[in-house]
Each structure stands twice: as structure tokens, then as C-alpha cells.
Fold this protein.
Amino acid sequence: MAGQVLHHGAPNAPLRRPLAYPADLLTPLADTPLIPRSQSTTMLVQKSPSTAYFWLLSSGWLGGHHFYLRDPILGGLSVMLCWTGLPLLAAILELPTLHRRVRRLNRLLRADYHGRVDGWDLPAPSCARCHRNIAWVILHSQGGSISRNHQLLRLTAPWWRHSGLLHPAYRDPHAGDHLCPSCTGEITPVVSQNVPPGRNNALTPPSPLLIGALLLAALWMLVHGMGGALQHTYALYSHWQTTPGVVTYNAVDMLTHHTPSWLGQNVTYQPQVQFRYVWENQRWSMGGLLAQAPPNFSSRARAEHYLRRYYPIGQVIEARVNPDDPEQAYALVRPLYHPLWVIAGISSLFLALHLGRRRRRLLKLQ
């Protein structure tokens, strides 16, 4: 019956104490068109985690590739950080949401037979007729009890419906679209759409954008503190002057790194380059290390492929020479670490999490 509040114990019995509502709240909503279920916003799939993992994997691959050219151990750690560490951090950030969902389900299972359920304890889709949050309508019924045969099961996902976790009193006897009790006439119509202030704020986790900004600040301080000396060394090398050179010899050396006994020995392969260059009308020959931070490879084949691709015999290169000591020269000078890929991955991850959280919040308010 439209416009009549029903008692939760007896579906067809009106309340003994009539409720006073303004006349504009009693406006029937039956003329409002009903949108199809296929167009309902409750079935939208949140794809923001997929975007976050895409940027995470791409940044981790590129960052690990840059690290791996110099040190396979550091490169492997970089890939593990970007591929496993950051997704694990994202999962930890979702623990408060999972905890709230578990508590919500427990409170729903402990609810009585009369439908006295807090609307905030139910997953709330939007009404197909008035496009409002169904749980919000139930919460703001202002004392209007919902009948026992109301389709409370419409407030839950189909998976919970078929799993048997809901009380038998909440089983849906009908199979229709999502409608709020205000549109079905079981409670006095509620037309306001303002979300109550201060509700559930204590359980709201901090914004992923804020957490990401704090993490980036901590990462920047760590890089600035630990890499200051390395960057100073790179700055010295970068100020060396450039001069043309020709590669005359290349080879691959095998290096054995001593590690703790439980890890065993780590063997890497390091390319070596010898080149000639002219400085102040004098011909010099430099052999040995390719760079101030030579790349290491896990196999000899990869190191030989690197030499054939970038430093074949007869290749003209741009060498950097120390103007104070022309005997010191390198064929390659580059930064000793590349934190930009890690920073880009963290920024993309937390930005995607923030946008997805904001999108879910907007869907709940519809």
C-alpha cells in the first residue's frame, strides 16, 4: 500500500502510533520511470585495481631492466619490490575495508526476525526508480519500520543470496529490480538525498592519496640520504669532457661475488671495452672497465650480446675524459641508481587507488 507504514511483525497491520510527515514527503513516486536492470549502476565493475597493477608492472619491468644492466641482484630486488612489495602494500591498505565488510556481515547474521537492520550494515545498491541509496532510505525512515516480507535481500549481492549466509527471514520471495522501501510503499516516502554528516567517519581509512604522498616523501628522504655520495660521484663524472673514440677490443670477464654461505656464490659476467681516443692532439688508449658503474649480466651470452649491440669493434663512441688526468676515461657514464621508475610506479598505484575509492563513494551516494 503506497503511503502506508507497515508494522514489521505483521505485514498488513498499520502502526499504532501515526507518524507526522510534511505533505511534500507523501508525494507518490509511482510515475517515476523504472530503468532496466542492465543499466543499473550497481553492477559496475571497479577496474581501478587493474589500472594500478598495469602501471605497476610496466614501471617495475623498466626499472628492473635499468638496474639489471648494472647489477642483477639489485635488478632482481627492484623487480620484486615493484611486482610483489607494492601490490602487498595495496592489499594491506584494503584490510580496513575488508574488516568493515566482515563486521557488517556478522551484524546482519545476528539481526532479528523483524527486519530491524541498520541500513549501513547492508551493501546498498541504488534504487531503480528514485536512483537513491537504498540503505540510506532505510536508515532515514524516521521510525518507519520495514515489513518483514520486504525484499531486504535486494540489498545484497547474488553471491551472498545463494551462499545461505543470510537469515531465512530475509529471503526474497520475488525476483524484480532493486527498489527501495520508499518506492514500494512499505514506509513513508523519503525524498532527501543528503548523506548524514559524521556517520561512519571513525571507520573511514585515510585517503590512499595521502598515504602515497607520505610514502613518496619517505622514499625521497631515503634516496637523498643514501644516494647523496653516489650522486656526487656521478656529478664529477658528468663534468668530464667528451671526445670521440673508437672501440678496438671487447671481452667478457667472469666475476664471483662472495655471499653468505646459505646463499652460495653469485657469478656474474661483466663486459670489458678497450678504445682509443685523442685528447689535446695526443692519442690515448683506455682499456678495462666500460663505465664507472659497469653493467653485470647473469650469463655470458647476454653480456656478449650487449657488446655486439652497443660496443662492437670499430664502433665510434663518445668517451668522457678527465681533463685533469687524460689517462682516465670511460666509454659510458650514467647515474648509479634510477629511482624515477619506482617513484612513478608508486605514484600511479596510489593515484589509481584514490580514484577508484572516490568512484565507489560516488556510486554509493547515487
About this structure: The beta strands are 241-257, 266-279, 282-286, 316-322, 325-330. Residues 1-48, 117-124, 142-176, 193-204 have pLDDT under 50 and may be disordered.
